[in-house]
Amino acid sequence: MNITKLKNRLGDKLQGLQENTEKRQVQTMTKKALATVNSNYIALTNNAIDIIRENLKQQPLSFQLFDIVKSPSGGATMFTVPGIAGDEMYKELTGIVLDYATPRAYWDTPDPVEGTPPVCYSHDSIISYEGKACSRCPFNDFGSKDGESNAKACKESVMIFLLRPDNIMPIIIRVPVSSKLIFQRYMTRLIGKMLPLSGVVTKITLAKTTNKTGQPYSLYNFETVSKLSSEEATQARNFGQQFMKMFNDADLEPIVQEAS
Predict the structure, then answer these.
(1) Confidence of residue 20 (pLDDT cuts 50, 70, 90)
(2) Domain range holding 50?
(3) Phi and psi at residue 84, in whole multiples of 5°?
(4) Do residues 78 and 89 touch, judged by C-beta distance below 8 A?
């Protein structure tokens, strides 16, 4: 056999094997990136809503009943989560985002004592409780906060309702304004993939960084761990809608009524 032809044939076979290997690797990476799982969240596989209603006995599902996870100080990278035996420390929080709110509040003192009610507040950062547009308020301007360069006097945040696998009650994660855009970008990426927030499992972590004056603070990061199966995605959406209706039927004012 002609040596040149043999080399060409072997080269063609080798190239074909490499192409097939690369194709399988790409397919594997795609499947891994968009893995669909049955996550066995107990809130989705049991009569969770009935249990909540039975235990509440017609009482409102108010904000004060939730465990709140606040942003740590000093650039810490661990979450402090209230537990049945005391506070628990987590490097990451993983779960289904049932819903979120974007409240904001204004205090007329630069450093209000915890528990002090605000002078003005809004549940959605769009319209104040008095019916005025937040976008036209001077306290929404950058640099309006005394003593802080470029900061707004009206404090913004994101309140995330995160459902974890072993609990039928979501925790509320308070995301500061410094990470609000990061959450919004994460949400937008899910929109681009036609994925609802409640249709994926989200992992939340913290990273230490510093501001322009060198002060450390914690930056939030959001990452999709996996997609829910079609059945679980439907269950998560239905559970989230029923749960948030119970919550929204209660008085929402405490969400932004106290300094923290």
Answers:
(1) low
(2) 34-255
(3) -70, -20
(4) yes
